[in-house]
Design goal:
By secondary structure, the chain is mainly α. Helix content is 79%, strand content 0%. α7 runs antiparallel to α8 and α8 packs parallel to α16. The longest helix is centred in the middle third of the chain and has 28 residues, at 170-197. One of its GO terms (biological process) is proton transmembrane transport.
């Protein structure tokens, strides 16, 4: 199809349809966009174009940046004793388990097995954050501890993707040095831009942040790394700035979720082959079970160690087993760089979709803690005592 406006209208039409469905049934719009993308690829036989590929790539970078900026630094420091062990276990066991199974039993290449480990180690900040807000648990200490643990898990995922698939060359040294300097300087520089030029119709602060993401992404690409790595780290160091500049965060989210991420998630679904899902249903089931078992083995004992009640422990474990955004980012990265085949991509993304749905439904249906109005003021035990 040569008419660029017709192509854009078809893709945006699918995005609008996904939004309607999401509002109607109350499931994450990102998940629905992936499923609609599956329909577009298998039924409508849609293809991507260079400009769609760019919008989708920038969507993944901006989404990664926003995920990092969602972390409340004060809350993370307050729950660091709980969140770091849970987050590390939530990343490490699924990563190693999926990697070993894919390589030694499923017969995937060493690189493809590493990619599988990364894709299935994730926890979905988007899904967990939505659940926290919907239930009111984001105002409680147990909810904040879960979100902080999600940050640790996803940081491990992003670092693994950046490190294990980077080409170590002189440009990598330049990239690491420039990124380190940028991370140190950006909070003060961003506050300066906001203070002197923010809030104007020119949107200088938004363009400034886009420039930073573009420049670091370009340097990461030259260094044979991945643009989501500096984006996530920039989001983390600017999280404190965003806590005091809510309007800027809302603008960036509006840009991301209106224009960019629909193209990313639709494209992610586009490459899922339904015949491959049918022919590899057993492998999908094995990978999904492996992710759930390793998440439970890693997280559940630690919740008991930190004094969670069984209900709280099961709820925390189920939410830490979710996956969506970074799972699809990792999988699409592997497909785009020919690390995995389209069939392997289909297997991984299908597992990611299942992990976004099943643990969330289990957590909400059977283990959701009851929220008391005063619960957010105490420690984790204060929520426990109300259950």
């Amino acid at each position: 199809m040569d008419n660029v406006w017709m192509v854009a209208s078809v893709w945006m039409g699918l995005a609008v349809a996904a939004s309607f469905i999401s509002v109607r049934i109350g499931i994450s719009v990102a998940l629905i966009e992936i499923l609609v993308g599956v329909f577009g690829g298998n039924v409508l036989h849609l293809q991507t174009t260079p400009w769609i590929d760019f919008l989708a790539s920038f969507g993944s970078v901006l989404l990664t940046f926003l995920a990092g900026s969602e972390i409340d630094p004060a809350s993370f420091r307050r729950h660091i004793r709980i969140s770091i062990p849970i987050g590390i276990a939530s990343f490490l066991l699924p990563f190693v388990g999926a990697w070993l199974y894919a390589y030694y039993i499923a017969g995937w290449s060493f690189a493809a097995a590493k990619l599988a480990g990364i894709a299935l180690s994730t926890t979905s900040v988007a899904v967990v954050y939505a659940v926290m807000v919907e239930t009111g648990l984001n105002q409680t200490d147990i909810g904040k501890a879960i979100l902080a643990a999600c940050f640790v898990t996803d940081l491990g995922t992003v670092l693994a993707l950046g490190i294990l698939f980077s080409g170590f060359n002189p440009w990598m040294v330049v990239f690491l040095v420039v990124t380190a300097v940028a991370l140190v300087c950006l909070p003060k520089l961003t506050r300066l831009v906001l203070g002197r030029l923010g809030g104007r119709v020119q949107e200088v602060e938004t363009k400034f942040l886009f420039l930073v993401l573009f420049a670091l992404g370009a340097l990461a690409t030259v260094a044979q790394s991945e643009a989501v790595l500096p984006a996530y780290l920039v989001g983390l160091v600017l999280a404190g700035v965003f806590q005091h500049t809510l309007v800027l965060g809302r603008r960036l989210r509006a840009i991301a979720f209106t224009l960019l991420t629909p193209f990313y998630f639709l494209k992610a679904g586009l490459y899922v082959l339904l015949p491959a899902v049918r022919h590899n249903a057993w492998l999908i089931g094995v990978f999904f079970t492996l992710k759930m078992v390793t998440k439970v083995a890693g997280v559940r004992p630690l919740t008991a160690l930190f004094g969670y009640t069984p209900r709280e422990g099961n709820y925390t474990t189920a939410l830490m087993a979710t996956g969506l955004t970074f799972g699809t980012i990792s999988s699409l990265y592997g497909l785009s760089h020919q690390i995995i085949s389209q069939t392997q991509y289909t297997v991984l993304v299908t597992v990611v979709i299942l992990s976004a749905l099943v643990p969330t439904l289990i957590a909400q249906r059977w283990f959701q803690p009851r929220v008391d109005g005063a619960a957010s003021a105490g420690d984790v035990k204060s929520v426990s005592d109300e259950i």
